[in-house]
Design goal:
By secondary structure, the protein is mainly α. It is built from 14 helices and 7 strands. The chain has one domain (4-260). It has helices at residues 6-13, 17-28, 35-41, 46-49, 52-61, 71-74, 78-81, 89-100, 106-115, 117-136, 141-171, 180-186, 218-221, 250-260, and strands at residues 4-5, 43-44, 190-192, 195-201, 207-208, 212-213, 230-236. The strands form 3 sheets. Strands 3-4-7 form a 3-stranded mixed β-sheet, with helices on one face. A two-stranded antiparallel sheet has the order 1-2. The protein is globular.
Length: 263
Amino acid sequence: MLETTADDVLELFCTSASTAERLEVWKRDARREAVVPVVLAHRTRVLYCSTEEDVQAVCQRTEHALGQVRRDVGESLAQIVDWHPDFAFTHTFHTCVERIGAIPTYQQFREFALDDADGQKMLGHPSKALIRGLVDDGCPQWRAQAAMRWRIGNAYYGFLREAYTLVQLRQRGLDLRVHPLADALFRVDAWVGRRALSLRVGNKKFRQGASAGRKAPAEQLLADVLPPLQFDTIEIAAATEFGAVHVPTALHLDRAAARLKGL
């Protein structure tokens, strides 16, 4: 079975002084004590077996990941908007996929986070602890829960976008690879050979275009890797329809496939 390991990621991306230092800082971070062994042991397999029909079926079966939460409520608590759990969302999503053997619906992902021992450690318990802390400080419980639903629901939709893109580009003949270590540590959403791909949603709070946003892009983090890497981006507009899973168009994917193939 086709698989990608953390060693594959490090062999390709962790070959410069700056990337080696970034890895060591991550490994020494006290907050990552439980994270490091999980991510380094992760093996990506299930996503490579997934099809376009699988992703479409998930989009049809999943419950609304944002529930009935309005944007003004969902983004009303900075403590949740800016919350980054010790296990990055991408770690939890990838672990869930491999655990259940499929791309999860939102309800399956919620069950993993609330009932599975690893899911509880990665997301369920930390999210509940943050909500409890806010409530203890006087925040209405309904507001804290709604904001957390908005935060996790949007992260879930983002993962579906990435899964769809992976499946579509692999169907176009690209041996595209993914791993949560590459995503969380080096901002590489996927890669083929020495070409790194970023899937960017037009959100000024994160990454948009060449200069806006607060997260350093892969091009900057991996600039001194030798031999030099090549970079490509698929940038799509932010969602304009409530709760919609916005994915790259066929034209965007065709163009990206051609660039990644060097055509």
